[in-house]
Structures are given as structure tokens and as C-alpha cells.
Amino acid sequence: MTPILHPDVQRLLAENAGLRAELADLIAHVHDLSHNVRANLLALYQSKLGAWELEKLKAQFRVARLKRMIELVQAALNRGAQPDMLQIEAQVREEQMLWEMKLKEAAAKLQQAEHHLAHLLSPVQSAEIKKLYYQLVKQLHPDLHPQQDHGDRLLWQQVQDAYDAGSLDRLLALSQLVGVPDPEQPAASSLEKLREDQESLQKRIAELEAAIVRIESQPPFTLRDDLENEVWIAMKRTTLENETAPLQAQAAALEKHLETLVPPPHVPGLKIGIN
To answer: Which terminus of the chain has fewer Cβ atoms in its 10 Å neighbourhood, N or C?
Structure first.
């Protein structure tokens, strides 16, 4: 015979079940924002503006490199010595390894963005993965199952990895391992315990809601609308071009000045290794 529960117990059980469903939805949403949406926005930003930012960075690097070379050449001339351009070039390259790293990182971001955008899931696949992930959150997330054993914790980690990788097949396989959850039975909990659970659930929900606001108030989320606005994109590109052009002109002037100090062919090639 099914026990008859006190009305307050029934009410709290129903309310807490609703709170758990809300919490599971928020957990899935925060993870999606932090991993998938963020990665998509960063890739979109790179595809729209990365090449222009890379050109500006290359121009900045070239100016800094030429300035340093002129400084070292002038120092040698001031000592009455003939500048050793091979040695100067090697010294400048060693001193400016950080610039080289920045250039390589910027170029790598462009390639990664291209690869990322070329392998996005279809809307149908994305919806299926989100639905399945939400179900697994309800079944395995530590916030909803604080007493879970080591095996379930390992399964949860695998679920996160599969979701981040966009692997629907892997999520389906993991859901088979978890199995279909048993229908929730009314817990023989005291009113005090149910109220404590409710307070804990409400607190965690408030924390996640605040986290969502915080996440969406920072880049790249603040650029979400701009990245779909071709007028904004065109203006941003023009700004970058206008910032790059003077740097390129400055680099050309510095290169001419360097040639007056040490005429060719004594000046080794100054090309930057990132195309």
C-alpha cells in the first residue's frame, strides 16, 4: 500500500522536483555557454576579423624590430665600429621571441577558427546533443546527486568530455551505461530535511543565474550581435586597416633609414616569418 504523505511533504516534494529540473537546465546552459557558445563566437570573430588583426600585429612587429636594429647599428657606429648585421639580426630575433610567439599564435587562431567553423554540428544534431546532455545532467551531475559513488563521478566526467567534443554517439553510449532512471519515489524525508534541500537548490539556482549574467556580460558574448552585423564588421575592418597603414608606412621609412646607415647588401633579409 502506498503511504499517504502529509500535504506539506507532498508540496515540498513536488516543488523540489521542479527545482531540480530547473537546476539541471541551468547547469546544462552554463556548460553550453562556457564551452560551445564561447568557442563558436571566438571562431566567428577570428573568421571575420582575425586576418586584419594579424596584419596589424605583423606591422607592429616589423616597426619594433627595425627600431631595435637601428638602435644597435647606431650604437656600433657611435663606437666607430662596423656593424655586424648577422650578429645584430640574431640578437634582435632572440630579444623579440615574444613577438614571434604572438604572431604564430595569431596565425594558429585563424587556422583553428577555420577548422572549427567547418565542423560545426547541424541544428538537428545540436538539439539532440543538448537534449541528451540535459537528461544526463539530471541523472549524474554532482549538484543533483551529492552522494554519488566513484563510478558515477567517472561517468559524469566522460559525459562532459563527450559533450564538449560534440559526440552524439558517445553520449548515447554513455546514456546506455547510466540506464533509464527509476521513477522517483516519495522520499521518507522529514519536513525539515525537505526544506533544507529546497533552500540548497534555490541557493545553487541563484548562483548559476548570477554566473550566466556574468558570463554574458564579458567578451566574446558582448560581441554576439555585432558579429552578425555586417556594417559593424566593415567598420571594424576599416579601423584596423587605418591603424595598420601608418605602421606599414613607418616600417618602410625605418627600413630606408637602416639602409642609409648600412647600405645593402650588408643588411640581411628582414622579412617576418608569418605570411
So the answer is: N
Specify whether the CB–CB gap between 240 and 58 falls below 8 A: no
- Structure confidence at residue 265 (pLDDT): 63
Question: CA 257, 263, 267, 273 torsion: positive or negative?
Answer: positive
Taking the CA atoms of the chain, what radius of gyration do you get in angstroms?
29
Instruction: Provide the 3-class DSSP secondary structure of residue 6.
Output: coil
- Cα of first residue to Cα of last residue in the chain, in angstroms, is 77
In the block, cell 515540498 appears at 12
By residue count, the chain amounts to: 275
Give the span between the Cα atoms of 105 and 87, in whole angstroms.
Answer: 27
Joined together, the cell numbers standing for residue 198 give: 529546497
- Residue 133 to residue 25: CA distance in whole angstroms: 10
CA 81/CA 72 separation, integer angstroms: 11
Nearest to 142, CA basis, from 122, 126, 157: 157
Q: Is 126 exposed, middle or buried (0-12, 13-18, 19+ CB in 10 A)?
A: middle
Per-residue pLDDT of 80-129, as tens digits, reads: 999 999 999 999 999 999 888 999 999 999 999 999 999 888 889 889 99
CB count in 10 Å sphere of residue 70: 18
Q: What is the DSSP string of 21-43?
A: HHHHHHHHHHHIIIIIIHHHHHH
pTM of the shown model: 0.80
